[in-house]
Amino acid sequence: xxxxxxxxxxxxxPAPAAATAAATRAPVxxxxxxxxxxxxxxxxxxxxxxxxxxxxxxIWNGDTGKMLGLVATGRWSxxxxxxxxxxxxxxxxxxxxxNRGTRQDMISVYDPVNMALLAEIPLPGRLIIxxxxxxxxxxxxxxxxxxxxxxxxxxxxxxxxxxxxxxxxVELPGCASLVPVAGIGFSALCSDGTLxxxxxxxxxxxxxxxxxxxxxxxxxxxxxxxxxxxxxxxxTLTYTGLVRTVKLGATPVIGEAFSIQAxxxxxxxxxxxxxxxxxxxxxxxxxxxxxxxxxxxxxxxGEYWTQKAPGEELWVVDMATRKVVKRVPLKKEAGNIEVTQxxxxxxxxxxxxxxxxxMDAATYEIKHTIERGGGGxxxxxxxx
Length: 384
Fold this sequence. Notes:
Helix content: under 10%
Structural class: mainly beta
Distance between the termini: 80 Å
Radius of gyration: 26 Å
Mean pLDDT: 91
Number of strands: 30
Strand content: 35-45%
Largest sheet: 5 strands, antiparallel
């Protein structure tokens, strides 16, 4: 006890040097809280989903390889960017007790400058699956959102984004994968091989279907597409590698298909089992640069029904000549691809392991390789 008391007394007596330092130490200034603000959107930004291993959507500067911000997107959500670059939208489903409790479906509206939550738009339901490219799309004028729903059958929630309220629910049996149609409403791919076009009215909508142009049970179409708003058309791709354009409108015009393999001078893809060939694959396996008409497709060696396999090569298709003008071997496989729409485009590539690559679309040189950059689908601002 004596030793302890003596030690305590000695410890309470400051040494002369320590006392002097304490007396001359500068006062601590309280830290002022602040929020970084994002600059005006650049065409070279990439919004990359984290995939299953990482939450959120990271915003990357493709020029510097630096992360700029993070959008709160859970696994069961879909992100859409306002074409006018005023807002970031997230269609999501949450529960009051995380994994149980009261279910809430909504569109969350975020400020693109400081990522502040601006509003929540209630929805009657939505498909509980996230990170799909075309489950949530926005009209070209930024005024209307279309959210795919499956409760209990296929339908689409039409949302007035200006008034921030639900307008109507359109029943759409057997159809999904949405695309906006300027001045009309939206279209969707259907399991019977047709394209449904929905003319959205003030209170009700009408649905018409095109002639069948693919057979889902024999050679299905990927549930993503490349959308060219300047031409009002989409580019579709089948599992065997058939590329086709569809002019959108009240009466869609279905173009003739061509084989991407034949366009590269190799044998066309087929559905024969154990027949090894080059096939397209990935979650987001193609993207289109509108101004040049170059279609970028992730390709891998395999057999039919390997459409989820990541790409070993990047094939560049000139849509005007229907020829593969470049085959680029990838050192790291990628399952998602997106290209910026400016005059000096960059290509963003992401994979299941969260590796993000940024490629120069002119030289095909990898400018940045980012670990844990995001393994999910990719969006870029709609800036020419």
